[in-house]
Amino acid sequence: MYDFKSIKLDKNQSQHLYIQLYKKIKELILQGHLMEEERLLPVRKMAKTLEVNNVTVVKAYEILEKEGLVYKRIGSGTYIAKELPQELNNEDDISKHQASVKNQLMEQGHVKVEKNMINFASATPSAELFPVEDFKRVLNEVLDRDKGHAFDYQEGKGYYPLRSVLNKYIKHYGIEADTESIQIISGAQQGIDIISKALINYGDYVVIESPSYTGAMAAFHSRGAKIIDIPLQKDGLDLETLEKKIKIYKPRFIYVMPNFQNPTGISYSISKKKEILNICKRHNIYIVEDDYLSDLDFNSNDSTTLKKLDNHEIVIYVKSFSKIFMPGLRLGFLVIPSKLHHNLLMAKHTTDISTSGLLQRAFELYLNKGIWQKHLAYMEEQYKERFLLMEESINQYFPKYVDCQLPLGGVNFWLKLPKGFSSNKLYERAVKENVIFAPGNLFFMGNQDEGYFRLSIASVNPSEIKYGIKLLGNLIGEYIDNKEELRKDITIKPIL
Ligand SMILES: Cc1ncc(COP(=O)(O)O)c(C=O)c1O
Q1: Membrane-crossing residues (predicted)?
Q2: Residue 257 in contact with ligand 1 by CB distance below 6 A
Q3: In terms of CB atoms within 10 Å, which end of the chain has fewer, N or C?
């Protein structure tokens, strides 16, 4: 008989005790610690053993029963089901996916960039776009003004004047928050990591888009989360599947990029943005919104964030500046629902105590002096030129059977070779010609190569785009035209 005393529930956690208990028992069943037909402790005995009240146990058993994991025998008690529901039998697939995340990260490191390469792989701006001189001036001003204080530990939430100016900044995006809700982070990646640290218990489920940002998948995985990926449609997540999966897995949160998603460039329709909020509100689930790019809106005119639409404090907003400023600064911020302030602050503290005070102070001056607006306008102009050139070059040089949904903004173009062709093979050929891109398998949990690839405009200068796309177009043509036997599978679709 399993020793139920070893189940630990945390009364200080924001998650209800009955949900915690339901998840623990489910985990024990899935891991084989509780066997079919084994009897769970009667309600009162379980409640006494775990020092919770009877209702907690009753509610946990009810959810387990609803999911078909246990059943009741009248007058006898609650037993583990003889057969697990089909939906849960794909747990094996889930673990396989988890294992492949590590490989993906390693593979990501494989996209090696040599100096003479045309780099469509990196989604971070090239160094010649960095405002070095302007930043040098604000750094010097901070050092003259604050002297040694610039090198003190900063408060964990972040330098107050910076949080305050950021609060004004997000009002331009329609986000209403108080300064206390703003947490400075050392880059969005750290934000995602501390959210995971604060919210995920080993074995919890997290829902993501498929494909998704590799760095986030790796962070969730490192905290022991089981990741459920849901296919993206042209206008955002498949909502029917989302709600179904939420009902089955009761995830801790869903992680989404509603504007110019990485890697697909997809933007959610406004109706999907609203509906996702409704679904998550209905099921009491947080949404982690990664806004790494909504500033670069070239065609949509509606890069509304979920945070702007969030009336119920369920969105944790993550903002990175890496794509529009200097990634090596390692600065970003979160806007956090009030219930989570404390937990996230604790997670931040145990990670790095605080983000560099010197850089926060310099960035505050940079924003307050209005240099930021000038820089943003400059970056928009630079990226727009590249964006239009890319669109034109793909239209001109790529065979028509390469599929692409034109993004409405951002820096990524997501393309697909005809069925049966591998983007990894294309990559191998392209590297030999000194052109690189990001093969699509990097962004899928299962690491599958279905012919997708991502081209980014962030690190290529305009003079390289036409040449690079023409070369890639020729390589695609050669690769595909040499495979006569596969040509019958090709669906000819007009591009863009
Ligand atoms: C979608 C997404 N989120 C977060 C990050 C991490 O950003 P940061 O440099 O601010 O940590 C990246 C970096 O590539 C990204 O693509």
Answers
A1: none
A2: yes
A3: N
Ligand 1 in contact with 181 (CB < 6 A)? no
8 A C-beta contact, residue 273 and residue 236: yes
Query: Are 257 and 276 a contacting pair, CB within 8 Å?
Result: no
Q: Give the per-residue pLDDT at 32.
A: 66
Distance 319 CA to ligand 1 centre (A): 9
Residue 470: inside a domain: yes
Q: How far is the CA of 288 from the centre of ligand 1 (A)?
A: 13
Whether 222 and 196 have beta carbons less than 8 Å apart is answered as yes
Preceding peptide of 407 cis, ω within 30°: no
> 255 and 382 share a domain?
no
pLDDT, position 486: 44
Q: Is 480 exposed, middle or buried (0-12, 13-18, 19+ CB in 10 A)?
A: buried
Tell me, yes or no, whether 249 and 355 share the same domain.
yes
CA-CA distance, 364 to 161, in Å (whole number)? 7
Give the residue from 31, 49, 84 where a domain finishes.
84
Residues in the chain: 496
Q: Is the minimum distance from the CB of 188 to ligand 1 under 6 angstroms?
A: yes
Task: Give yes or no: residues 323 and 415 share one domain.
Answer: no
- 311 plus 226 within the same structural domain: yes
Residue of 320, 334, 356, 442 best suited for mutating to test ligand 1, as the one with most atoms within 8 Å of CB: 320
* pLDDT > 90: percent of the chain: 75
Which residues make Cβ contacts (< 8 Å) with residue 405, sequence separation at least 6? 234, 264, 265, 266, 414
Are 433 and 287 contained in the same domain?
no
Q: Say if residue 118 is in the same domain as residue 267.
A: no
Contacts for 269-275: CB closer than 8 Å, 24+ residues apart: 269/235, 269/236, 270/302, 270/304, 272/235, 272/236, 272/237, 272/239, 273/236, 273/304, 273/306, 273/309, 274/309, 275/239
| Chain Cα centroid distance, residue 39 | 40
Instruction: Identify whether 113 is part of a domain.
Output: yes
Q: What is the pLDDT of residues 289-338, one digit of tens each?
A: 999 988 899 987 788 999 999 999 999 999 999 999 999 999 999 999 99
The H-or-E segment that residue 412 falls in is strand 412-416
Range of the domain at 177: 147-369
**pLDDT tier at 36 (50, 70, 90 boundaries)?**
confident
CA 69 to ligand 1 centroid distance, Å: 39
Distance 404 CA to ligand 1 centre (A): 23
pLDDT at 343: 96
